Amino acid sequence: MQAECKTPLQADSLERLFDHLPEVVYSAIFDDPIRFTVLARPFEALTGRTVDDVQSGAVSWMDLVHEKDRAILREAYEPAQQGEPMSVEYRLCTSDGSVREVLDRAVPVRDAAGEVVGLDGMILDVTLRRQTERALERTQMLQSMGRLAAGIVHEINTPIQFIGDNMRFLADSFAQVLELIRSYQQFKEKVRQGLAGPQDGEQMDQAEAKAELDFLSGEIPSAIEQTLEGVNRVSTIVSAMRDFSHIDERRMAPADINRALRSTLIVVHNALKYVAHVETDFDPNLPLVMCCVDDLNQVFVNLLVNAAHAIGDVIDRGRGELGTITVRTRREGPDVVIAISDTGTGIPEEVRRRMYEPFFTTKGGDKGTGQGLLFVRTIVCDKHKGRLDCDTEVGKGTTFTMTIPIEGAQPRRK
Known about the structure:
Layout: H1 8-20, E1 23-29, E2 35-39, H2 42-47, H3 51-56, H4 61-64, H5 70-81, E3 86-93, E4 99-110, E5 116-125, H6 127-193, H7 198-211, H8 213-244, E6 253-255, H9 257-267, H10 269-272, E7 276-281, E8 289-291, H11 293-316, E9 323-332, E10 335-342, H12 349-352, H13 372-383, E11 387-393, E12 397-405
Parallel strand pairs: 7-9
Antiparallel strand pairs: 1-2, 1-5, 3-4, 4-5, 6-8, 9-10, 10-12, 11-12
Helix pairs in contact: 6-7, 6-8, 6-11, 8-9, 9-11, 11-13
């Protein structure tokens, strides 16, 4: 049975439908460069360019794509040319200089011989959605930093306190030594004038005893050493905080995962030290990873704090001794693997089934909002195209394992 030809009314309705859809409907042919044969009018509102400009070739499609995203789109075209559906996110540059983020979904088109010759697809403006997601990510970061703030203040306050104590001791010691120096100068002047007598020597002995030189000679170097250690400790914490997050620069760039983990462990040290010993096993030959390290730092915080809470629950139930949190990194082919293990309570099956659900939490309101593990999975799996695995045993503990591509997230294909 042959399909009926479309009437003019049907054709008008189809065109009207395409022009009113929120997505830009298109049909393209794999030429060099790719050529658009059909492009719905919403494209003009999205980019500020005319459909005729693109269809005529006066404006190349790749010229509209943000220069940093062109490689992503070309990579997405490769499997599409082999017959796979395509779903990829990239940025388009508009005529007024602004940038729009879009989701481009398409299916391959074949000719009579079965060869892939082009794509039929739709482009959706996801700029507002992505802005909202980034705002939520920043909120998540700020909430986490707020919860950690008291611990970070304590970590900085402790060395600052003994730096202050040592500086006061050094100030008092300097005053004693300076007084002794004045006594020496007076004694020297008497000797020079030939006026010094036995009583002056006794006075110098008394001045030396008052200055407690033997005590100061041992304590001053120790106070200086402790002060320098305190300064280094504060500097290390501040450096870790700087490494930990640049909230307004959440971008993909090569990063040292081992360094990121060390910085995060410093930031969360106060949340861990009362419940667990921390052991690390970092691959010293780990390559730089193309990632958004600020987001991964937040992932590490969530998993480490969760591990501390799990061990804290065990301690609360009467075990008493500190547990162990182990952080490991290694390379596996094209990926870097990060594993965070704890000796906590483990995750029951009924909780495990729901642990990635939004707002689901088994913690009290002061410990969690039910967003942590959802955020972890979103960052690892969606943003970095990695894998997140959970191995847990009730009463024994839990290991979360993240697998991240070294070369960075591949184009989004759904």
